[in-house]
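Dissemination and training. As part of the outreach component of the grant, students in the summer workshop were shown how a complex can be specified as a set of sequence lines and then modelled as a single object. The example used during the hands-on session is reproduced here so that future cohorts can follow it. Participants entered these lines:
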Amino acid sequence: MIHLMIDGQPVEVEEGTTILQAAKKACIHIPTLCYHEDLSIKAVCRICVVEVEGQRLLPTACSTPVSEGMVVQTASPKVLKARRNILELIFARHPQNCLVCPKSGKCDLQKVAQDLGMHLDIRYDTQIRHQKEDWSSPAIMRNPQKCILCGRCLEMCNDIQGINVLSKENRGFHTLVAPAYGEKLADTNCIGCGQCVQVCPTGALTVHYHTYGLMKQKELGKKLIIQVAPSVRITLAEALGEKPGVVSTGRLVSALKRLGFYKVFDSDFSADLTIMEEGTELLNRLKNGGTLPMITSCCPAWVKYCETYAPELTDHLSTAKSPQQMFGAMIKIWFAEREGIDPGEICSVSVMPCTAKKFECTRPEMRDSGYQDVDISITVQELASLIRAGGIDFAELPDTPFDDPFGEGSGAGLIFGATGGVMEAALRTVYAVVTGQEMPRLEYTDVRGFKGIKESTVNLNGTEIRVAAAHGIRNAKTLLEKIKEGKADYHFIEIMACPGGCIGGGGNPPKTWKIMEERKKAIYEAERNLPIRLSHKNPAVMRVYETYLGEPCGEKSHKLLHTTYFNRQDLLR
Amino acid sequence: MQEVHVLLKNRGKIDPKNAQEYADNGGFTALEKALSMTPEEILETVKAAGLRGRGGAGFPTWRKMQFTATAADPVRYIVCNADEGEPGTNKDRILLSTDPCAIFEGMAIAGKAVGAHVGYIYLRAEYTYLFPVMQAALLHAESLGYLGKNMMGSGYDFEIKFRSGAGAYVCGEETALFESIEGKRGEPRFRPPFPSIHGLFGKPTMLNNVETLANLAPIIRNGAEWYRSLGTENSPGTKLFTVCGNVVRRGVFEFPMGVNLKDIIYEVCGGIPDGHKLLGVQTGGTSGAIINADQIDMNLDIDSVSASGGRLGCGTILVIDDRNCIVDIVLNNLDFFRGESCGKCTPCREGGQQLYNLVNRIARGDGAIQDLEKIDELTETMQLTALCGLGHSTAVPVRTSIRNFRNAYLHHIDKDFCPVCSGKGGIYR
Amino acid sequence: MTMERDSYVFKTPASKLVQVAAIAAEYRDRPDMLMTVLIRAQKVVPAFSKAVARVIAREMNIPMNQVYSFVTFYAMLSVKPQGKYIVRMCKSAPCHVHGAKEIVEAIEDQLGISIGETTEDGRFTLEYCPCLGLCEISPAIMINDRAYGNLTPESVREIIKQYIREDV
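and obtained this result:
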């Protein structure tokens, strides 16, 4: 153990601890900008500098390990002067328009400045970068003027996800983080997973906001029908300032009602539909020698990745649409007809933890209703801002149930939000269909958790079905390589582009693995208490098949609930 | 004043491509001796000799050797920093073009001392024309068995590889150099971890300047006591001084450490030509202190120059005469630093540009007295918080020139006419 | 200088791309050899366009944006086509105090371009270079791999004339 003094307080920590971590034991949170607890240490912003007795220079707390007898001052006048000076230098390159910035109130730069008390004039020449905002991608908005060159997005996109869209160009004062060769985001191989948005400390990378478009639709008198993804009820309260993992399903519906949505439906329902279709498809492939392993297709970022990097493997993808798109078709065709509404009058909205869904709903083949099946997809962040704009006191709202006829979602649908969830939900139904019995224990923990690639074997009446669930594109790539080499002896694979699954999606509040742990616990806890935990036992689902669709993978199902894929390899040229 | 040629002893006397001629002149005997010594014995000799780094930092070479030799990882590297980017410095070019085998020998000795079997020479792109000579010398030495596998029958292997830079001064910084060899942008790494534990390719690495390595063979050959007889107590040995600027005789000269600056300028280099007067001197290159004519009676060894607020650094002496303007010189220095900043850390990337803007305003006659305060605070922040030496160095010419030439700055702030700065900057002969 | 989309409007001949591919393929899965590959490739292609970067990335099995990021960092690697003769003028202090400004103006005047530009016939590119290491013969320039020092505006005009005549 190492003993040191921080701001006059004796602190004892293990060897290898950094000053930043050790300071927390003395109740000191040294301000940081480029540091992120789940990413590698950068030590580039230089905000976390501290004064160490005996050292002439000010070392950075995030990167300096403690040593025996060290005497540290984290906020001496010298340190504060240096910190404010550095912030001043950042401000001289930063647009001063916090009032209209979507990140205002959630911005790390703003917070550090506020905490430090930056009331001084900026004494340097203001030189904002001339590059304009890039709105080309439906999922992510890039504003190079607000970048502080922390390097977090680079690590996320290149090292962690392995998509390699963003990089630093030039050096010195003219350094810029951008797609190579000045390309617009939409023209690159960006899959829209939004993990860069998750880690960006400022407004340089944000969700592409569609809230104004939504308001416009309301103004035009459209009937706003919204579907709510499983993860949203887990993270919305967090987005509005509550603790991570607070489940707010009932309040969520109340808020949406007050915001003027005509109907509020539960995407868990269409998740159940997805299980019915995909489960049946799997069984068909197993029985009739179809392309195996079959891979889930509900994650649009993963689908775009597959279309770009391995278009020859798109046969492996399930032809089932994602829950969002299935629902879009069901709303504008079945529901519209049933209620006697002209589908042209419907504005079909989804609220998702996901940025890539914004791209998915604009895919040209997603128009089975004759209109864009899902008009607008908004993220949890955007919903939170709508709620704030509406002056809604979220904490005090009563609970309201989802609207019929899609109100009921099973537990199997709910766990879609966590990595391994789709796999578990599918197995529950497939097991029941094949063996005629329920799984002895519905919680299929083999595929739960944050391990990169989880594998398991299920015994279905004597047949061994090998499954795998991966999250994060690097792990997806590993599995793809295995398939290409012919070494993937799985039958069914679930792939989620975002680390942790949808609860870690780009549209959620920024996460850390610690926060993810809370979200994951909440989702499985909430699921356990639901009355129906199997997709095929969902009465709403059964009704829809009986009265309208016929059978899973039948003719009508194929028409409305299944899709095709493209070859996007030219994005790599 | 007589030069003392230890490092330059083969200059002009041997064909640099010919390793046999090098050997005939006493070359490789030090390596032979070192190969029969233990690493500890080599270390003790270098320690007793008191050799300090010649690239700029003046770090005791034996310490680097020791840290690398005692690191946990068995794979170690020797790296020769031939990136010589400090403006005004030519000494490494002279050594590499006239006596490359001396560098190879030094690297091999260092290799034996730390247990490394591979050495890299990182040569700046502006010196690509030196490569054929160096390559020829290396191949010749290897063919004769002096270097490479089983050197001189000792059973010890040491292979030397060449790597090139591509126009980045920052790659002269130790860890940035490693990054460059690893195929990445030349951005320095934060320390700790230190290069002797986690260096090139993550392995313990001993990196030294060309001149430092050139000292190793003479030390092993002639002994520590002999080395100590040259130079001063805190800086034994000789130093290559590159004298440039407004002097009659420019070039690279070798003198024992401790030689007097005034003597070099006037006795060795013939003083200022064409009847002009001395305005100032900048020692250590663009990252060095700028001193005025009253301060040049100074002995040039590492500690003496530091004590006076400057830095001997790589031993560059830039002589500036009265045709120039100090503010213009400082502006030139800042232009260099802002262009060479890697851009990774905030204080250097942003501060370098803002410093340039501030001094530029003063130079153009649009400055105010408050600008000097702003400069003072900004340079202090950069010196205290920058990630690597480049950020620290940017501040040095500015701070020292304001201290030693305050009137020049006030002159510009008062909008008094400056023929240099009110034109397009720079002198016209 | 930051990159806007339209600066890449030049096509690299397919034969040159094949040559570059061969160079890069020698170092597949050796990302540390990127500098070596680029320096060799720069002798073959006019600049590292997106097409060239893609080929290098593919053959070396590294991401394309890594090649781009590397090239734009180093001053002597370029994404924009350079002239046949790259005239590098030293702008550091030792040359500065020796009248480098006059030399620069003389060359700019003679070739009709400013620093950073390339002549219309594509033969000369003018660049500033921080310290060529030729301080003892300042003011100095380098044209490709050859150094010229102790220059005066007159002597440098003669040197450039030789290159204009292709008499080197």
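Chain C has two domains: 15-73, 85-164. Students were then asked to discuss how this feature might be tested experimentally.
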